[in-house]
Design brief:
Helices cover about 45% and strands about 20% of the residues. It is α/β, with parallel strands linked by helices and about 150 residues long.
Protein backbone atom coordinates (compact mmCIF):
# COMPACT_ATOMS: atom_id res chain seq x y z
CA UNK A 1 0.00 0.00 0.00
CA UNK A 2 1.08 3.58 -0.61
CA UNK A 3 1.24 6.64 1.62
CA UNK A 4 -1.56 8.13 -0.46
CA UNK A 5 -3.79 5.10 0.22
CA UNK A 6 -3.30 5.43 3.97
CA UNK A 7 -3.80 9.19 3.91
CA UNK A 8 -7.13 8.60 2.17
CA UNK A 9 -8.04 6.34 5.09
CA UNK A 10 -7.12 9.13 7.51
CA UNK A 11 -9.30 11.50 5.48
CA UNK A 12 -12.22 9.10 5.97
CA UNK A 13 -11.67 9.41 9.72
CA UNK A 14 -11.66 13.21 9.34
CA UNK A 15 -14.97 13.00 7.49
CA UNK A 16 -16.44 11.13 10.48
CA UNK A 17 -15.36 14.01 12.71
CA UNK A 18 -16.92 16.49 10.28
CA UNK A 19 -20.23 14.59 10.32
CA UNK A 20 -20.25 14.67 14.12
CA UNK A 21 -19.58 18.40 14.30
CA UNK A 22 -15.95 17.99 15.34
CA UNK A 23 -13.00 19.77 13.76
CA UNK A 24 -12.29 17.37 10.87
CA UNK A 25 -8.95 15.80 11.66
CA UNK A 26 -8.38 12.08 11.22
CA UNK A 27 -5.45 9.80 11.97
CA UNK A 28 -4.44 6.19 11.52
CA UNK A 29 -1.48 4.16 12.76
CA UNK A 30 0.04 1.64 10.36
CA UNK A 31 2.62 -1.05 11.08
CA UNK A 32 3.83 -3.46 8.39
CA UNK A 33 1.05 -2.44 5.98
CA UNK A 34 -1.61 -3.11 8.62
CA UNK A 35 -3.84 -0.46 10.16
CA UNK A 36 -3.56 -1.02 13.91
CA UNK A 37 -5.66 1.94 15.03
CA UNK A 38 -7.77 4.85 13.89
CA UNK A 39 -8.87 8.09 15.44
CA UNK A 40 -10.64 11.33 14.76
CA UNK A 41 -11.21 14.44 16.81
CA UNK A 42 -13.67 13.85 19.65
CA UNK A 43 -13.09 17.00 21.70
CA UNK A 44 -16.75 18.04 21.76
CA UNK A 45 -18.16 14.54 22.10
CA UNK A 46 -15.92 13.61 25.03
CA UNK A 47 -15.74 17.16 26.45
CA UNK A 48 -11.98 16.66 26.53
CA UNK A 49 -9.55 19.14 24.94
CA UNK A 50 -6.95 16.37 24.65
CA UNK A 51 -9.19 14.13 22.50
CA UNK A 52 -7.38 14.93 19.27
CA UNK A 53 -7.26 12.41 16.43
CA UNK A 54 -3.57 11.69 16.98
CA UNK A 55 -3.97 11.05 20.71
CA UNK A 56 -6.93 8.75 20.16
CA UNK A 57 -5.10 6.80 17.44
CA UNK A 58 -1.91 6.53 19.53
CA UNK A 59 -3.74 5.39 22.66
CA UNK A 60 -5.64 2.80 20.68
CA UNK A 61 -2.39 1.53 19.13
CA UNK A 62 -0.67 1.29 22.53
CA UNK A 63 -3.60 -0.69 23.87
CA UNK A 64 -3.86 -2.97 20.83
CA UNK A 65 -0.14 -3.74 20.82
CA UNK A 66 0.53 -3.70 24.54
CA UNK A 67 3.41 -1.30 23.92
CA UNK A 68 4.34 2.22 24.94
CA UNK A 69 6.61 2.93 21.98
CA UNK A 70 5.84 2.69 18.26
CA UNK A 71 9.21 2.82 16.45
CA UNK A 72 7.95 0.67 13.57
CA UNK A 73 4.74 2.64 13.07
CA UNK A 74 3.69 5.37 10.69
CA UNK A 75 1.07 7.83 11.87
CA UNK A 76 -0.96 9.39 9.06
CA UNK A 77 -2.81 12.53 10.09
CA UNK A 78 -4.75 14.91 7.89
CA UNK A 79 -3.49 18.13 9.50
CA UNK A 80 -0.15 19.12 11.03
CA UNK A 81 -0.05 18.06 14.69
CA UNK A 82 -0.46 20.69 17.37
CA UNK A 83 2.17 21.12 20.07
CA UNK A 84 0.37 18.71 22.44
CA UNK A 85 0.16 16.01 19.78
CA UNK A 86 3.76 16.62 18.72
CA UNK A 87 4.78 15.94 22.32
CA UNK A 88 2.76 12.72 22.41
CA UNK A 89 4.32 11.66 19.11
CA UNK A 90 7.79 12.45 20.47
CA UNK A 91 7.27 10.30 23.57
CA UNK A 92 5.71 7.46 21.58
CA UNK A 93 8.89 7.28 19.48
CA UNK A 94 6.76 6.78 16.38
CA UNK A 95 8.98 5.91 13.45
CA UNK A 96 7.32 8.05 10.83
CA UNK A 97 4.74 10.83 10.63
CA UNK A 98 2.90 11.79 7.46
CA UNK A 99 0.52 14.73 7.45
CA UNK A 100 -1.58 16.54 4.90
CA UNK A 101 -2.38 20.21 5.44
CA UNK A 102 -0.23 22.60 7.41
CA UNK A 103 -1.91 24.32 10.33
CA UNK A 104 -0.69 27.92 10.21
CA UNK A 105 -2.63 28.88 13.33
CA UNK A 106 -2.22 25.94 15.73
CA UNK A 107 0.40 23.62 14.24
CA UNK A 108 3.41 22.67 16.32
CA UNK A 109 5.69 24.84 14.15
CA UNK A 110 4.00 27.95 15.54
CA UNK A 111 5.60 27.20 18.92
CA UNK A 112 8.84 25.43 18.03
CA UNK A 113 10.70 27.94 15.83
CA UNK A 114 10.98 25.29 13.09
CA UNK A 115 12.85 22.92 15.43
CA UNK A 116 11.85 19.29 15.16
CA UNK A 117 9.66 18.45 18.17
CA UNK A 118 9.55 14.76 17.26
CA UNK A 119 11.88 11.97 18.31
CA UNK A 120 15.27 12.35 16.57
CA UNK A 121 14.78 9.07 14.66
CA UNK A 122 11.29 9.99 13.44
CA UNK A 123 10.96 10.60 9.72
CA UNK A 124 8.47 13.26 8.61
CA UNK A 125 6.64 13.71 5.31
CA UNK A 126 4.36 16.72 4.89
CA UNK A 127 1.83 17.95 2.37
CA UNK A 128 0.36 14.62 1.28
CA UNK A 129 -3.19 15.23 -0.01
CA UNK A 130 -2.95 18.65 1.61
CA UNK A 131 -5.61 20.18 -0.64
CA UNK A 132 -8.18 17.54 0.32
CA UNK A 133 -7.48 17.98 4.04
CA UNK A 134 -7.47 21.75 3.76
CA UNK A 135 -10.74 21.80 1.80
CA UNK A 136 -12.42 19.70 4.49
CA UNK A 137 -11.24 22.10 7.20
CA UNK A 138 -12.36 25.14 5.19
CA UNK A 139 -15.80 23.62 4.61
CA UNK A 140 -16.15 22.87 8.30
CA UNK A 141 -15.26 26.37 9.46
CA UNK A 142 -17.25 28.05 6.71
CA UNK A 143 -20.36 26.21 7.94
CA UNK A 144 -19.56 27.14 11.56
CA UNK A 145 -18.88 30.80 10.83
CA UNK A 146 -21.18 31.88 7.97
Amino acid sequence: MTDEHYMKMALKEAEKAFEEGEVPVGAIVVINDRIVSRGYNMVEKLKDPTAHAEIIALTSAFNALGAKYLPDATLYVTVEPCLMCAGALHWSKVGRIVWGASDVKNGHHVYTDERNPFHPKTQVLTGLLADEASDLMKSFFKAKRP
